[in-house]
Amino acid sequence: MNPWEMSGEIKEQDYPKLIKEFGAKIIDDKLLNELKKFTGELHPFLTTKLFFAHRDLDTVLDDYSKGKEFYLYTGRGPSGKMHLGHLLPFIFTKWLQDKFDVDLLIQMTDDEKYLVRDIPMEEIRKNTHENILDILSLGFKKEKTHVIIDSEQSKILYNNAILFAKRLTASTAKAVFGLKDSDNVGKYFFTSMQAVPAFLLSAIKGRNIRCLIPYGIDQDDHFKLARDILPKLGYYKPSAIISKLMPSLQGSGKMSSSDPNSSIFLDDNEETVRRKINKYAFSGGRDTKEEQRKLGANPDIDFAFNMYRFLEPDQTKVDKVYSEYKSGRMLSGEMKALSADAINAFLSKLRSRRESIKDDVDSYMFDVDRFK
Amino acid sequence: MNPWEMSGEIKEQDYPKLIKEFGAKIIDDKLLNELKKFTGELHPFLTTKLFFAHRDLDTVLDDYSKGKEFYLYTGRGPSGKMHLGHLLPFIFTKWLQDKFDVDLLIQMTDDEKYLVRDIPMEEIRKNTHENILDILSLGFKKEKTHVIIDSEQSKILYNNAILFAKRLTASTAKAVFGLKDSDNVGKYFFTSMQAVPAFLLSAIKGRNIRCLIPYGIDQDDHFKLARDILPKLGYYKPSAIISKLMPSLQGSGKMSSSDPNSSIFLDDNEETVRRKINKYAFSGGRDTKEEQRKLGANPDIDFAFNMYRFLEPDQTKVDKVYSEYKSGRMLSGEMKALSADAINAFLSKLRSRRESIKDDVDSYMFDVDRFK
Fold it and tell me: Which residues of B touch A157 (CB under 8 A)?
């Protein structure tokens, strides 16, 4: 498990084992009910257990019920164009922000991408700008959303990162991230930069504020380390809400930016989306029409259905499609058409919002004075 | 040779060997004559061969004679109060700046001190402020002197440091600095922060400008590495003018801040200076008055004489004292009295200049806009 070179597939049955090894907890029904008290409803990412594990989420909710604030932190490494798989965690983060009305830090790790990849800085800068627009197109609250571009905020990040770095040995960095002596010293240091947003608002405001981080399980190493070190700096351990790997078009591994047919990109046009779904989407349906009618599909592993479930705003419709597809009354082709429509509707909405915020991106940028 | 934990003594006869190992060159008479063409005179640090070696100083002078600019870079780790030994290299740097009328970057590595020492950040900040005042009291040109406090300039430093860090492996950092797996990741990264001023003006101005760095031989590892890596970023190798360890009160090792009697601090009063010189100064004189009269002293290894030579502005006087002391006409006690007077005069001048610039320190701070 290396956040920089995660590849291959994690099997569904491996998740509980992983979580047990890592010391996180499964989000159980009791906790879901707790959450529902505040959110009124449960996001499909929760009911489908895509976000399935946590650290201290119960404490965050407990504190919140007593009127104590918390904030959200998530991020993106701007290595290239964004695809749907990249955007899904942000959809969930936006839902959390909307429900709890809290500040959100979004860290764009352009420095990391420079240090670990062979991409020229100019290209990373361009990616960063485009990715920010993609993310903000989801409709985050302007006054509570704070985008940290590492290279823009390196002063406050570095000055806090050295506090963290002083408490992290090279040997721990090696053990946790699989770094070798042949790796560059920037990689060794970087995890300290990535840890900063987890205590930054506490540092700025001069009082301890809980930070809740939604992330994929492949990023767990970074934040587990932060949980070891932050208390030594006088801060809370960061809390986490952890997802499985996002569903992938071809049903195996993460969606990959390098293979254009393995993912649906945010700038794919309607026809391309339809073609990719028809041709590549991993199906939970049966091999023949007859079998499908007789035995029904397994919607839970079906890429087309999952995208439909996450992107279709009307949950009544989703429930109906689920049972139609599962029972065999709906065929894979129909499911795929519905899914492509939902994806295209989502992407089209994204694009028009993107256009409308294009000249207003600066208002979303992190500004330390806003917290003083 | 570890810049963080240099201890003990380097014997005079070891310097040529060290230089040969490190690939630097001795400053020979030919080069001194070249230098003199521009400076008109030679600083005692050069004639006494305290600054005795170099890298590419000939090229810097050659380019300068063709009208090409260069700049100076030096620094200080603000770990505590400054003593005379700390200030000597800055005296020489000021001389270079005066003679060539060039920009000078002075890096205050507060981040490094935090990472490698057990000093609270608050104390480091205080030291930094006091040390800057001490250094500037030497009378550096305001419009051409630019103090970089790492924690203040971490944005521009970090953004350039990652370019350097990408090209420096942990294994090289280990080999060069003796770092271990048990060292913190900040130490691994820091050398990249220290390398930045060696190419910063080139980076800002977008054209290649030579950088000349006066430093003690114990810092050579840092800059040798910079010479390997900077060309990979498209910049000149930094040039160097390298000193032996500064003369120490007790004649062995560096002056140490931890033992108050091993050094003359800038805030020692006249009586303390006199007492330390009389009691602790390593003497090149003979054991008895009779022997001294008969055989004379060795002024070159005599701390009192060396301080006198470096701090007395009138070189005719210095030459006279040298021959008087060497011949035995002058006794150690007289030499020490002269030296204490010269030191006290120097410190007193320093203090009054310190007072006069106290409220003007901001004008000396690095400001990227000054170079655009």
Answer: 158
Looking at residue B249, what is its pLDDT?
A: 85
Answer whether A182 sits within 8 Å of B170, measured CB to CB.
yes
Task: Please give the DSSP secondary-structure letter assigned to residue A125.
Answer: H
User: Do the Cβ atoms of B3 and B219 come closer than 8 Å?
Assistant: yes
Cβ separation B182–A173 shorter than 8 A: no
* Residue A222 C-beta-side C-alpha neighbours within 13 Å: 27
| pTM, 2 dp | 0.93
Q: Which amino acid is at A73?
A: Y
Query: Hey, what amino acid is at B295?
Result: L
| Residues in chain B within 8 Å Cβ distance of A182 | 169-171
Q: String of b and e for B43-78 (b: at least 16 CB within 10 Å)?
A: bbbbebbbbbbbbbbbbbbebbeeeeebbbbbbbbb
A155–B154 CB contact, under 8 Å: yes
Asked if residue A150 has pLDDT above 80, the reply is yes
Q: Residue holding tokens 């060539």? A: B100
For residue B110, give the amino acid letter. D
**A111: distance to nearest CA of chain B, Å?**
7
Residue A316 has pLDDT above 70, yes or no: yes
Counted across chains A and B, CB pairs separated by less than 8 A come out at 110
CB contact under 8 A, A170 and B167: no
At B108, list the tokens: 């205050």
Closest CA to B151 of B121, B120, B118: B121
Whether the pLDDT of residue B226 is over 90: the answer is yes
Substitution target from B162, B171, B172 for chain A, most A beta carbons within 10 A: B162
Contact B125, B110 (CB under 8 A): yes
Return the domain boundaries, chain B.
12-250, 268-356
What CATH number belongs to B268-356? 1.10.240.10
The dihedrals phi and psi of B70, each to the nearest 5 degrees, come to -145, 175
CA pair distance B286, A70, nearest whole angstrom: 74
Tell me if A286 sits within 8 A of A297, measured CB to CB: yes
Is the per-residue pLDDT at A339 higher than 70? yes
Hey, is B290 helix, strand or coil?
Answer: helix
Residue A256 pLDDT grade (very low, low, confident, very high; cuts 50, 70, 90): low
Tens digit of each residue's pLDDT (9 = 90 or more) over A198-230: 999 999 999 999 999 999 988 888 889 999 999
> Residue B55: is its pLDDT beyond 70?
yes
The average confidence (pLDDT) of chain A is: 92
What percent of chain B stands above pLDDT 90? 84
Sorting pLDDT into bands at 50, 70 and 90, what band is A9? low
Residue type, A115: L
Query: Which CATH architecture is the domain A12-250 placed in?
Result: 3-Layer(aba) Sandwich (3.40)
Cα–Cα nearest to A103, from A151, A148, A155:
A148
Q: Determine the distance in angstroms separating the CA of A61 from the nearest CA of chain B, rounded to an integer.
A: 34
Alpha-helix residue ranges (DSSP H) falling in A330-370: 332-357
